Amino acid sequence: MVVFKNLSRHPDIGSNCYSLRLGETEIVLDAGTHPKHAGNDTLPRFSDIEEAELDAIFVSHPHLDHIGALPCLSHLHPEATVLMTEGTKQAGRALLHNSVNVMKALRVELDEPSYPLYGHARVDNQYKKWMTQPIGKPFHLGDIDRVECQLHHAGHVMGAAGITFRYEGRTVFYTGDVHFEDQTVTKAAEFPTEGIDDLIIESTRGANEREPGYTREREKQKMGEIIAETIAAGGAVLIPVFAFGKTQEVVLMLKELMDEGVVPDSPVHIGGLSSKMTAISDDHADSALRRHRGYKIMERFPDLEVMQRGRSEPCYEPGHIYALSSGMMSENTVSNRFAKHILTNPKDALIFVGYADSETPGGMIQAAGQGGAVCLEDEGREYAISCRVEALDFSGHATRDQLADYAVEVAPQRVILVHGDEPAKAWLQEEISRRLPDTQVIIPDPGQEIVLD
Ligand SMILES: [Zn+2]
Ligand SMILES: [Zn+2]
Hints:
Layout lengths: L1 E5 L11 E5 L2 E5 L26 E3 L5 H4 L2 H7 L4 E4 L1 H24 L10 H8 L3 E2 L6 E3 L5 E7 L7 E7 L2 E5 L23 E5 L13 H17 L4 E4 L5 H14 L8 E3 L1 H12 L13 H4 L3 E3 L14 E4 L9 H10 L5 E4 L8 H8 L4 E3 L6 E3 L3 E4 L8 H11 L3 E5 L3 H14 L4 E3 L6 E4 L1
Parallel strand pairs: 3-4, 4-5, 5-6, 10-11, 11-20, 12-15, 12-16, 13-14, 13-15, 16-19, 20-21
Antiparallel strand pairs: 1-2, 1-22, 2-3, 7-8, 8-9, 9-10, 17-18
């Protein structure tokens, strides 16, 4: 018997975690933390699997909503083999260490005694035992009931993978986060379409329709034009980005735009964590799963400025471009601290390139727009938004139509929708049910168990 259980604590994106029981073999898929909650409330429902003997924990990619709670889960279940790709292993270690630092700061700021949920020593000790598997090569898990597994390139960020499980004639596929189009660095997903009985699929963009006529290339040219106009007028540009994934995508896109003559050669600033993540990404420059094969950003981008150690933000200079994390401009991050220089200057531009939750400063700035006002972190002081504000679509997630098309191509017996806000999952449920009337499309509640038979 195969049983799926939703271990996410909240119904939206964050604390992503699911378990699959295949006969006697029990595997956990991802162990993320929730960015909008604090302390133990950020963790998945680990109490639901307290008694379980876990065979393995699979981490699809190193974003914190998938790996942030791994040190807690591994501590509770030292018997479980931890599995991921080599890229996820390297980037995950660095991101977990950074997460320890963030939790230490939050302990004081939020007066949250449970923080940090784990320390640097635990991350390093566990890291040594993380096992890696290459994309595409079958392997087995479980001692009593052996389950055949295989990783598939997910196209979301470097190293991101989905995983298939085959057991007693049943095939279950978990996508993790997926993108079906080439990005600037990472190539499109290569996912299986044949013989899948149960498809566990992400739903991030289910509530958003893509603009008609969109192409990534056109969007890139638009970004180039905004930057060129801003620099010509004597302004600076801030692009809030996630340290892993979006930083490398944006920096390489800027390099392309400079080589094409769309953007004048200008200094590009990134933060310390981003430079670490970029170096890790460069380690995998020869991978067949990326574009610009062999191109190492840290070595070959002469105008790249890395923020000095110990500094909390770079120096503001007109004519410069700042690709700083975090992407949602959350409190206590470099992009949040640096924003005050940009927001109040009508010559400057602020360009969003990915998803920002509506309750984060990034989301609030987009909602208020130029002429509005926003509070950054320091005691609620309000800043007028005088700069140009633009939002471009360089999402690392598949569009809702691509997700639905993929599900229709697979035509499984069952689709389980995860990793999405409620309207997003509702749209996909309706769309997929309409196009595949014989398929059961399920939105599992936190804690819900589903027998896959
Ligand atoms: Zn992700
Ligand atoms: Zn995610």
